What we know:
Layout: H1 8-16, E1 22-31, E2 44-45, E3 50-56, E4 62-69, E5 75-81, E6 90-93, E7 103-104, E8 108-116, E9 119-124, E10 127-130, H2 190-193, H3 211-215, H4 217-223, H5 229-232, H6 239-256, H7 264-277, H8 280-294
Parallel strand pairs: 1-9, 1-10
Antiparallel strand pairs: 1-2, 1-5, 3-4, 3-6, 6-8, 7-10, 8-9
Helix pairs in contact: 6-7, 6-8, 7-8
Amino acid sequence: MGLGLVTTLLIVGAAIGGANGDAMVSGSVFCDQCKDGQVTLFDYPLTGLKVSMACPGQSGQPTVIGEVTTNWLGGYVMRFEGAPDMGGCRAQVSGSGQGCGAVAGPSRGLNLVFQMFDTEIYTVDPLISQPAQPMSFCPRSSSPLPKPVTPALPPPAKLPPTPRPPQLPPLPRLPPTPSVPFLEASACPYHMWTMPEHECYWRVLSPDLKVAVVFGPLAGRKYGTDLTLRGSMTGRADPYKTLLREATTALLNSYNSIEFPYHPLDVVQRLNYALIGGSTRQVLMTALRFLKANSGQPGNITCKFTTCK
């Protein structure tokens, strides 16, 4: 899988070695349960959804140049060889999501975030898929929202076959109506998550999940493919191990409390940005930001854990 910029290190290495540059696009897809056109606390990432990339063709009409499927965290990554011109390209949901409905939200343009050695990296604002009607628990609006306009995409262009990525285990679906302490402000440091009496708070992510599966191939190459989330929380006395420990803790806190400063996908992306940068200072600064959030700063937020029964 890959979220954010998980394959950039290989791309940059190839560019330096004299190979043609590449372009890479990453983003995520959410179920917009309230049909308000934005990602809120009521929405959850969609697994197994198809996303298409359409770019202006020679005739000016959009042509689909790639299609991928979202991973178990709702993320997707597209890679295009030869550093093509991505100006005017747009990403859009092109398939119906399981358990969300059949209405796709509007397409999104690309945001250039990195350019070096003929290599370009783009991100896309979250794409959405919507149910036929808003869920009953959604806040009621005084006026109905306009139905999103979904531009029709042409049939996919014939592209050379690409190898299918390995099938990842499904992520337990987030509950549509968060329960306590999900709605409470809570931030717990790593040592609280490692205590046996707090095992029941690992509700979304299993302690035995591999770091490479959760944070992507770049993390797998850095930390190994056998390291689990539980094992990642024992790292210390090394900037990269400290980064992973605090990132894992922040990811768990983000699923445990809606008021935690970081969204789960944001945690994954920030860790990968730090690994891509290759700077010890950047690694330490990212780890420090996670550490402060995990310690309840700002706001002096405490850990709401109680002993599991």
